Amino acid sequence: MTGPMPLTLASIRRAPKALLHDHLDGGLRPATVLELAGECGYDELPAADAASLATWFRDAADSGSLERYLETFAHTVAVMQTPDGLRRVARECVEDLAADGVVYAEVRFAPEQHLARGLTLDEVVEHTLAGFREGEALVAAAGGRITVVCLLTAMRHAARSLEIAELTVRFRDRGVGGFDIAGAEAGYPPTRHLDAFEYMRANSAHFTIHAGEAFGLPSIHEALAYCGCDRLGHGVRITDDITVPGSVADAELGLVAKYVRDTRIPLELCPSSNVQTGAVPSLDKHPFDLLARLRFRVTVNTDNRLMSDTTMSKEMLKLVQTFGYGWSDLERFTINAMKSAFIPFPDRLKIIDDVIKPGYAVMLG
User: Fold this and answer.
1) Rounded distance, CA 135 to CA 210, Å?
2) Closest Cα partner for 104 from 145, 139, 135?
3) Which among 108, 219, 231, 256 could disulfide-bond with 208, CB atoms 3.0 to 4.6 Å apart, if both were Cys?
4) What are phi and psi of 215, to 5 degrees?
5) pLDDT value of position 2
6) In this structure, is residue 3 part of a structural domain?
7) In this model, does residue 171 exceed pLDDT 80?
């Protein structure tokens, strides 16, 4: 082949990808939801076949409200309350990501939401990690390659964040890479969980914070200045601190935006999800391109593959079609993500040098 490979969904699937922001309970296969519901006696699903259920999740998530969007998770979480359910969902997650060309993924979930049938927090994490390892083994046996790291999430409206932070540190040498808080932002600022973040910093542990999605610049400022997060989950509202009077070259950055760019704070941007939740009005108005052109450390993510009916390849293709990106841009976004991963530096470098760069060299011809 001479010259770059055409940018299509199929070719993008072949390219190596790194994913930092993906929710385990937002990525189930519709057929698995149905089967697990039958096994555990959950009879409140809104549809009785996989195709209709997939459509319902996508349509219900398209409300334009983060709060409404989050309501869809009641059904997926309900079927993830048993050891077998957790292991299966985690295993299939790994297989699905690998089939889409993802070579590194950080998958997050909230253990506190999976205790309805008597499991302890430690047991929830153990069964989920076992599912991830099973998935990695199946991918390797089929000749593929993927590394999956688990992030543990605390719900920002609850009061268990310190407990989940302690759980994160307890399992950090067993497959858990970091900590997160998630849920509705309005009324639940990250500073409510300062003790958890102080615990993470005291133990030299990684954490990200959902900030700047449904709420504006104050959420981002608190996450950085008071909580000291390593990455921003979403962070699209950083544009509230950027003024573009004419061309992008004339953009004026406020103090928070300058800090985020200068210190290379990674932005875990999720294009389709950001439109669904109303964080941005439409894909063509998504600030991804502005932030990329201003050289923020932007990364591409799925957020919730079931609710957004998406994959990493679909997200990348949408960006290509909307902003005219080429292979070199997709490679840059992928390396941005890998540089920002919650694994040791030598491991990040090895994946960049041995997998990502050679993979995109093939695409670039």
Assistant:
1) 27
2) 145
3) 231
4) -120, 160
5) 65
6) no
7) yes
For 199, the 3-state DSSP assignment is: helix
Q: Is residue 190 part of a domain?
A: yes
Position 360 in a domain: no
CATH at 265:
3.20.20.140
The angle at the Cα of 135, spanning 130 to 140, to the nearest 5 degrees, equals: 125
Q: How far is CA 268 from the centre of its chain?
A: 7
- Give per-residue pLDDT as tens, 20-61: 999 999 999 999 999 999 999 999 999 999 999 999 999 988
Q: CA 85 to CA 39: how far, in whole Å?
A: 9
Cα torsion through 168, 228, 102, 107, rounded to 10: 30
Residue 183, marked binder: yes
Residue bearing tokens 């041995």:
354
Query: Does position 281 have pLDDT exceeding 80, yes or no?
Result: yes
Question: Is residue 25 a known part of a binding site?
Answer: yes
- Residues with catalytic annotation? 213
pLDDT at 1 over 60: no
Rounded Cα distance, 19 and 104, in Å: 6
Residue 206 counted as an annotated binding residue: no
C-alpha to C-alpha distance for 86 and 49, rounded to whole angstroms: 21
Domain hosting 215: range is: 9-355
- The residue among 50, 137, 37, 46 whose CA lies nearest residue 94 is 137
Tell me: pLDDT of 144 over 60: yes
Instruction: Classify residue 342: in a domain, yes or no.
Output: yes
Annotated binding residue at 303?
yes
CB-based contact 131:176 (threshold 8 Å) = no
